[in-house]
């Protein structure tokens, strides 16, 4: 039975960074990766180290509801490719990186109750990430966050460098998930070993809230285009991150900029914004995804058209 690890966490918690650390660790066995994108553009998949045929994106929907059946079909397709005689895919485990607004409970149930998945796979564990600087407020305002943490076997309290009160953040997390093992880190720099081989698929290991809903009013803007001048891009992203009345829950982009030998990668959470060179070559087209509340998508598009 192929073990499945679910990596969950709210927008900007550091899931892709943790996934890259996991894949880069020599102790990690060959792994197939499924990445769920909430928007229509696939950026997370391109930010995964060594992205190839073993990295599959499920886009434009939440993996715990709209594209849940897609997850089932994708896992079964991976297993068929693993078992084929000619040029089989070689992997010993599957890691699923959920979108930031997905609840892991329905995914666990899918793996446990589906007749085909239940005989071919086992849920090894749920790993959740929490933003140490934001998790206290997120627990109070976003119902996805307690659902993600309460379901976790391991929790990575990430972004310690952005937290004013780390102890308060840890206490808030432990109040929701008292049985989970807690690791602390910056940029998801935590030991990989505790995140793998967690255990069997006993459904009593997961404590689920009675009702899981999505935060109201969240919209996604997916923008794409050609090469973009780096200086103009910086001005545009600073405007987006600091726009009054906009709550930018997550900003993520990968860009082709003239004169830059690598891809330019943007990461943002609320007013925090980081822009720098990526580890991959420039993409054929630039792409940006902004997820948030109170965001004027048309204004975003107009600004995007100007910088291009």
Task: Please tag this protein with its features.
30% helix, 308 residues, 7-stranded parallel β-sheet, 5-stranded antiparallel β-sheet, alpha/beta
Give a verbal description of the structure.
- Helix content is 30%, strand content 26%.
- The chain contains nine helices and twelve strands.
- The protein has helices at residues 15-24, 68-83, 104-113, 115-120, 135-141, 144-150, 166-176, 230-242, 297-307; strands spanning 2-9, 31-36, 55-58, 93-97, 121-131, 154-158, 181-184, 219-225, 247-255, 264-269, 272-277, 286-293.
- A seven-stranded parallel beta sheet has the order 3-2-4-1-5-6-7, with helices on both faces. Strands 8-12-9-10-11 form a five-stranded antiparallel beta sheet, covered by helices on one side.
- The radius of gyration is 19 Å and the shape is globular.
What is the first-to-last residue Cα distance?
49 Å
Total DSSP helices: 9
Mean pLDDT: 81
What coarse outline follows from CA principal-axis ratios? globular
Rg over CA atoms, rounded to whole Å, is 19 Å
Strand content: 25-35%
SSE order, one letter for each helix or strand = EHEEHEHHEHHEHEEHEEEEH
DSSP helix fraction? 25-40%
What class do helices, strands and sheet pairing give? Answer: alpha/beta
Report the count of strand segments. 12
Q: Mind summarizing the main beta sheet?
A: 7 strands, parallel
Query: Biggest sheet, strands in spatial order?
Result: 3-2-4-1-5-6-7
Are there runs of 5+ residues with pLDDT below 50, and where? Answer: 38-45, 47-53, 58-67
